[in-house]
Each structure stands twice: as structure tokens, then as C-alpha cells.
Amino acid sequence: MTDDAALMECAKCLGLASRRAARALSRSFERHLRPHGLRLGQFSALTALILRGPSTVGALADFLGVERTTLTRNLHLIEAKRWITIQPGSDARSRIVTITATGRRKVEAALPAWREAQQAATTAIGAAGVASLHRLAAKPLA
């Protein structure tokens, strides 16, 4: 049996630390975006559609790093607000997501709040932390 002293290294678990850090960052962005009626995932999806143009649900899920089923559920919420449209794609299973003018205006109105959250996060984790986070996001560990 392993004694508790041997498990003390687990208190420094990078997996746990990354989850806690992700939640803290997300909460900060959520607080900044809340007055604009947006969640962080919604803002990210809308900005991805602006930058990438109309996308299939699968391609958008891959880009955002989320499960397709989770994204589909969230897209239906923003479709109901008329921030996006979802149309049939080239085959029976694919769907094309497009941002609407209303969705674009929503992003534009929230952009200053997002910038505040981005600056607060950058200040909190520093330039090296930002670089490490982007590196990990671009090339996940094996």
C-alpha cells in the first residue's frame, strides 16, 4: 500500500492544475461577456465563423476543439437567437453553419469586453504562459 507521503507529488498534478486554470480563465471571460448576452463558447463559435466563413458542424467542432454533439446543442441555442443559420450541406448528414448580420453585430459589440478579458488573462499568466498555452493548444501532448 502506498503511504500518503508518496502521494504528495500528486498535489502538483499538471492535469488538475490545467483544469483549474482553464476554469479560472473561462470564468473571467464569461464575466466580461455576460453583459453582452454571450457565453465564451458562443463568442468563440461566432468569431470562428467570421474568420473562417461558413463551415460544416464537424469542421467547426474540430477548429474549436469541442465534441460535435456538444457544439450541435450549443449551435441550436444561438440559431434560435438568429445569430447563425444552419442549412443542409452537400449530403444528408452534413450541415453548414453561417453567421448572420445580427451575429456579427453581437460579436462587434462584445469585442471590447473580450479584449479586456484577454488582457487580464495575459497579465495574469505572462508572455511565457501565453506562448506555452498556444503551443499546447496547437500540438496536444501524446
Which helices and strands occur, and which strands form pairs?
Elements: H1 14-33, H2 40-52, E1 55-56, H3 57-64, H4 68-80, E2 84-88, E3 95-99, H5 101-138
Antiparallel strand pairs: 1-3, 2-3
Helix pairs in contact: 1-5, 2-5
The CATH first-level class comes to Mainly Alpha
Parts with pLDDT < 50 across at least 5 consecutive residues? none
Q: Helix share of residues?
A: 55-70%
Q: In one word, what is the shape?
A: globular
Cα-based radius of gyration, to the nearest Å: 18 Å
Q: How many separate domains make up the residues?
A: 1
Q: First CA to last CA: what distance?
A: 30 Å
Category by helix and strand content: mainly alpha
Describe what you observe in this structure.
A three-stranded antiparallel beta sheet has the order 1-3-2. Helix 1 (14-33) packs antiparallel against helix 5. It contains five helices and three strands. Helix content is 65%, strand content 8%. It has a single domain (24-138), classed as Arc Repressor Mutant, subunit A (Orthogonal Bundle), CATH 1.10.10.10. With 142 residues, it is mainly α.
Summarize the structure.
The protein has 5 helices and 3 strands; from the N terminus they run H-H-E-H-H-E-E-H. The protein is mostly helical and 142 residues long.
Provide tags for this entry.
65% helix, mainly alpha, 142 residues, Arc Repressor Mutant, subunit A, single chain, 3-stranded antiparallel beta sheet, 3 strands, 5 helices
